[in-house]
Amino acid sequence: MLKIKPLNKDELDEAYQFLSELEPQDGFKNHIYQMPYEQFKNEEFDRLIKESKGIDLVEGRVPQTYFFLWDHHKIVGIFKVRHYLNEALKTGDGHIGYAIGAKHRRQGYATKGLKLLLRIAKDIIKEDEIYFCVFKYNKASIKAQIKNGATLHHTDDIDAFLRLKKSDIK
């Protein structure tokens, strides 16, 4: 049974375990990788919750909420939802970033998790269109986005940029 849940205090240990072991990959930045538990628990968790509410944002950042993809009682993936785009995000990372844990890849979790997440994200994201950015070589991620209704908008030397109208989310 798959479900998407936001970062929360009741599942702090599970979130930490997943994030501290998730190596940054394919453009997914994870500053919590190998962070000591006490630092995550006493500093980073509160910062992430504040960030999701738009409180004490670092200049140039927008509110962003962390969501976790659970398969039964285990986290298998993470999704970051940026509530709106600034100029840097319009030409860069876009609204949604995600990663699936190494041992759970190639099992359809990105596609299924993105579908669940989009149902929630459409009420969080202020714009009418959701922006995605992914390395061009990351065919699996591009495929997951297209299976969820996104279309290729354009590419550059490194990245593929996809778009999805919120009205097309099923």
Structure in words:
β6 (151-155) and β7 form a beta hairpin. The longest helix is centred in the first third of the chain and has 16 residues, at 37-52. The protein has 5 helices and 7 strands, in the order βααββαβαβαββ. Helices cover 32% and strands 27% of the residues. α4 crosses α5.
Order of helices and strands: EHHEEHEHEHEE
CATH architecture: 3-Layer(aba) Sandwich
Mean pLDDT: 94
> If you compute it from the alpha carbons, what radius of gyration comes out, rounded to the nearest whole angstrom?
15 Å
CATH homologous superfamily label: Gcn5-related N-acetyltransferase (GNAT)
Strand content: 25-35%
Percent range of helical residues: 25-40%
CATH class: Alpha Beta
Largest sheet: 4 strands, antiparallel
Layout: helices, strands, pairs:
Blueprint: E1 2-6, H1 12-21, H2 37-52, E2 64-71, E3 74-82, H3 87-90, E4 96-100, H4 109-124, E5 129-135, H5 139-147, E6 151-155, E7 159-165
Antiparallel strand pairs: 1-2, 2-3, 3-4, 5-7, 6-7
Helix pairs in contact: 4-5
What is the structure about, briefly put?
The chain has one domain (2-168): Gcn5-related N-acetyltransferase (GNAT) (Aminopeptidase).
